[in-house]
Amino acid sequence: GDAVSDISEHSYPNISTESVSRRDSLSSVGTGHQVTQDLLMEFAMLSAEEKPKNENLRRSISCFPEASEPAGGVSALDIAKGIDFSHADGVSPNRICCNALMGAFARARPPQWKKAVDFLAYLWEQDESIHPDIITYKTAVKACSNAFQLRQIEIVYADMDAKGVSPNMATFQFIIDAAMETRSSLFLRNAIQWLDRYPRLKDNFASAIVVACVRCDLSEEAMEIFQESLVAHPETVCESSETVFAALISKNDTHGVVRLLDFMCELRVLPSASVCSSLIDFLCRHDNWKQAINLLETMISSDSVYLDRMLSVSPVNTVLRSMARVMKESQE
Fold it and tell me: Please, which residues have CB within 8 angstroms of residue 165's CB and are 6 or more apart in sequence?
């Protein structure tokens, strides 16, 4: 797709990418033997308490033929003492057990993103019955996200797009998480472009994207996305606006708070009572008491449902204290 056609030009200097140069595409892939041997060696080093109990994961380890060969001096027989291989006699891998294995790579500490990417490409070389599906891909994205490997996320996403596998909500959740954790505005802009192709998913992630934009210092993008979403889905956005305002307040972004609040007041839609009280307190502490009064007036003048739900003595007292302070300072 157009959104991922030029990813080779991107770089993320703020992220540790010591191994990114290891591959520029999924075409460079380890053999199934190497993948399995790595897994067996890793499994052998686990304590008894850490050994996986999941049936699908045990099956995914045991049903590869390479599992019968020694792994760095540790035989499969030694490893088999830790788990039951008897159920796997004569069975072939299926997609469920392969996805479970991919999940193990994603959950590992540190995340085994290299093995996840290698395994993804390896599966495409096998029987069609175990070709990667959206579960496989989103789990590979999770492994890369947990390791903050933004370049690899783009490569996996591009491969998924080329193979005709559509992303789901979990896919973009891991992508947005990586953007927020790394504060990479470049990567976040790419993710927003990818979401543009999936309007329903973009609507679901509107608030999360706005929060990510705030954390990545993309203020204009945050305002634009929030306002578009508010017009299209006022009730839903109002309910989730708490995280957006919390992100703005944590950055002491009074300008951003005032802009969003003014826009909401114009539409006569408000966040919850607790959020309004927090906003009034924040605005008054930063000498924006006129905006605080405007919010209070909107709360009072709203319909009866809003009035019953929102009017309380706390925001009123906050505004009065701020006004008294300002008047006192002006007289000195």
Answer: 132, 133, 134, 137
